[in-house]
Specification:
By secondary structure, the protein is α/β, with parallel strands linked by helices. 32% of the residues lie in helices and 25% in strands. It folds into 3 domains: 59-245, Rossmann fold; 258-514, Alpha-Beta Barrel (TIM Barrel), CATH 3.20.20; 541-608. InterPro entries: Class_I_gatase-like, DUF2194, Glyco_hydro/deAcase_b/a-brl.
Length: 612
């Protein structure tokens, strides 16, 4: 009996000892290190090429002329960016070269507004009359041009016109903006249109965009100064597409969703709105409600999340790497692993939420941020958050960075390049106010460190405003990218959420993503790393289009496989259906636009003559 008691006691001792060891093992986070979260391997970028010679036919020739006035320069350069992104080639020409242009249905002369008296009017008029196309990129007043551009009369300029109303569908998805919207502020010419003019867009009952037929040619006229804004690039490109008989533009087909400050420290306590709707504290709300809804919506609407880690909200560097590791266990292990399990990835937002700028670099003082002493201090902070990342995600690398409050400057970029050798993308903003220090970007490599690629975010929030939706559609209309970001704590902030609780914000967020998923099926959800690779390959590819009377021939080198192009057919229609070279379907309600999925690098698409 005594022997049995000793045996039982020994077994109990070993059991409790093992339990203590297991608990200590888990407390030291060894479990997650031995069994890391399953992560996506990334999607390879597949390409296709052809070496066939260009067939006989017409190529689109866009000739661009701009003068030194700010309106002309900014408007035309905005269109040039739009054409670059859509892979439309163009050539800049001088005033003297305008005189020698040959008229063709597939030639377009682009002019910026102001100082129209300097342009060779008679040669331009003759060029249009003989069948050339003219695109006026911004407003001007010159009565000598009235007949050519479709005016019966013109008075003076009118400022402070707001909103947009679409008389005709320019691209599917654009919504009207009321006159109380400040997204576009127009300075326009007070005009009376001729009967030959056809209006596409108005603002406060004034014509903003119209076309005019003159002789055998066509004119497209932008009666506004708002075409200097990035958020008009898609409109400008699509307006251009109405001039030639047929027009082909390219789409990248990318959809990315960022969650800033995620994983991040979770506030304690609750808020009135969360208490009202769920009777939970913030931590349980995030884990049991918010994340579960986000995950479901992502799965249903083809969205993959890239989270951006932040270590602390303190404005000083009091916490060491070890203290960050110890105090951030829950958000890192719970939310970090959840993101990775959903095939997402985690990038860096910062050690804290202080933008990486020094005292002599611009930043809006209303942020109340503490400037960094120098690059060395920035690097120290980045090493600490890198230690935090590496401890919990040993199998992962840091490939993308989002600047806190979207503010960054050259010192911060250099610090990032030094600390994160595998960093591929920096994502600031596509539009914003540069004077406040906003890191405004185009989709392009960094000029100082070409291995770093700028991949700006286009819109933000849970989809509550028409303005945010508009800028989303405009970028899709231009080059087929949806790049959006949200914050988990938006629902906690009375300023950002207002009286809305999570049910209302969730619904608007879901509606926004459902619309994008339902109407722009060619946009594929992906992690930021994959989006960066795909966008770089898209921009590196070459596409050539040959326009013939009865068909369009598209061929390319290094094209994405598959690729998406848009074809506007203004004379006739395109055969729809599934073909060996690609799939063709009508796009929108205009009856002229088609979305084409290229499955081969050489494709022929037949045009049907509606007159037959």
């Amino acid at each position: 009996m005594k022997k049995q008691i000793i045996i039982y006691a020994s077994v109990l001792f070993l059991f409790f000892t093992a339990a203590i060891i297991v608990l200590q093992f888990m407390r030291l986070d060894m479990f997650h290190q031995w069994f890391p979260a399953e992560t996506a391997q990334g999607t390879p970028v597949e390409t296709m090429s052809t070496d066939q010679d260009l067939p006989e036919g017409e190529q689109l020739n866009v000739y661009v002329h701009k003068n030194d006035t700010p309106l002309s320069k900014d408007a035309v350069e905005n269109l040039e960016y739009a054409m670059d992104y859509a892979k439309i080639s163009y050539k800049e020409i001088t005033k003297e070269e305008i005189k020698n242009l040959s008229a063709s249905p597939y030639s377009v002369l682009v002019l910026g507004g102001e100082h129209s008296e300097e342009w060779p009017y008679e040669e331009i008029r003759s060029y249009v009359e003989k069948g050339g196309n003219l695109y006026i990129a911004s407003r001007f007043i010159n009565p000598d041009w009235n007949e050519l551009i479709g005016l019966k009369d013109v008075e003076d300029f009118i400022d402070d016109i707001y909103g947009l109303t679409f008389v005709k569908e320019v691209f599917p998805g654009y919504m009207d903006l009321d006159s109380d919207s400040e997204l576009f502020s127009h300075s326009i010419a007070d005009v009376e249109l001729a009967e030959s003019a056809e209006v596409y867009i108005e603002a406060e009952d004034h014509p903003i965009l119209w076309s005019n037929t003159y002789g055998d040619g066509n004119v497209m006229f932008w009666n506004t100064t708002s075409v200097t804004e990035k958020s008009s690039r898609g409109l400008m490109l699509q307006a251009l597409s109405f001039l030639p008989p047929t027009f082909v533009s390219s789409q990248a087909g990318i959809k990315v969703m960022h969650i800033d400050d995620f994983p991040a420290p979770v506030p304690s306590g609750t808020t009135d709105v969360i208490q009202r709707d769920y009777d939970l504290d913030i931590e349980d709300f995030y884990s049991d409600v918010w994340w579960e809804d986000m995950k479901r919506i992502g799965e249903e609407e083809d969205v993959i999340y890239t989270g951006y880690l932040i270590g602390t909200y303190q404005d000083t560097m009091d916490l060491t790497s070890e203290e960050l590791i110890e105090t951030r266990r829950f958000p890192m292990l719970y939310f970090g692993r959840k993101v990775l399990k959903e095939d997402g990835e985690i990038g860096i937002h910062g050690y804290n939420h202080q933008s990486l700028v020094t005292a002599d670099e611009p930043i809006d003082p209303e942020y109340g941020y503490r400037p960094w002493k120098n690059q060395a201090e920035m690097e120290d902070s980045l090493h600490r958050v890198d230690d935090l990342f590496d401890y919990y995600f040993k199998e992962e690398d840091i490939h993308s960075y989002v600047p806190p409050s979207n503010v960054l400057n050259k010192t911060g970029v250099r610090a990032l390049h030094e600390v994160f050798p595998n960093l591929e993308a920096i994502s600031g903003l596509y539009t914003g106010d540069k004077e406040t220090g906003a890191f405004l970007q185009e989709y392009e490599p960094n000029s100082e460190f070409p291995s770093l690629y700028h991949f700006p975010r286009i819109s933000s929030g849970y989809g509550e405003t028409d303005e945010e939706r508009f800028v989303q559609i405009d970028a899709i209309a231009n080059f087929g990218v949806f790049a959006h970001f949200i914050h988990p704590d938006d629902v906690l902030d009375p300023y950002r959420a207002g009286d809305s609780g999570w049910p209302e914000m969730r619904q608007s967020y879901e509606d926004m993503l459902h619309y994008i998923h339902d109407h722009y099926t060619h946009l594929k959800g992906m992690r930021q790393t994959d989006a960066t690779k795909k966008m770089k390959q898209y921009q590196a590819s070459d596409i050539a289009v040959t326009y013939q009377d009865s068909q369009i021939i598209v061929q390319g080198d290094g094209l994405l496989s598959p690729s998406t192009i848009l074809i506007r057919v203004n004379d006739g229609s395109l055969e729809t259906g599934s073909f060996e070279a690609g799939d063709v379907k009508a796009f929108g309600e205009s009856g002229t636009l088609y979305q084409v999925t290229l499955k081969q690098p050489y494709a022929e698409f037949k045009i049907k003559d509606e007159a037959l």
